[in-house]
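Note to self: keep these together.
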Amino acid sequence: MSEPRTVTEQNPIRVFLLDDHEVVRRGLADLLDSEPDISVIGDAGTVEQALVRGPALRPDVAVLDVRLPDGDGISVCRELRSRMPGLRCLMLTSFDDEEALLDAIMAGASGYVLKQIKGSDLVSAVRTVASGQSMLDPATTARLMRSLRAEPVPGPAEPSELATLSPRERDILALIGEGLTNREIGKRLYLSEKTVKNHISRLLAKLGVQRRVQAAVLATHLDQPAPGEHRQS
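Structure:
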């Protein structure tokens, strides 16, 4: 992960906004731009726009609405961080949703705040994640991650769903469980990002789940290969 850079009025925190409501985007932009050390460099109202504009603008922090008409901000977080590993993502939502928080953690988000947050607290949150710190409450995060791993394995064997996976899919599932992005998985396994995406689509179908965090639950039940064991694609 890249080191946080020095922030000054001449070198402000570059922020990108994603929210499907124009009034919200304008309000956030006015709030953040009024700070001397923060500059809103662009915004988007849809997932499609965000995935085009975000990488082109190279922000330091992306403030992402969780629920959008054409998708969700968590998948945008995962995709943008795959392209820009140093990006800090702050998830913004109207819902106090533990499942969404888990998904945000798995996507590598640096923070998760409710829209009811005070303006001054949101400004502080942007500065916090820009500095490399987390806005995810440690106690809440630890509790949720423990709950992920609390489900008992049926008997001494792995869950039956895992038996359908190929060795390569099992490798990828284990790395999903570690919270790696598609790009990071590709680098670890010497695969293209597109190949990783294809593997993940197939393994999710085999496991009968739709969401990455659901696969991460099953990843905790994987039997690990012997150290140094090499698996073929």
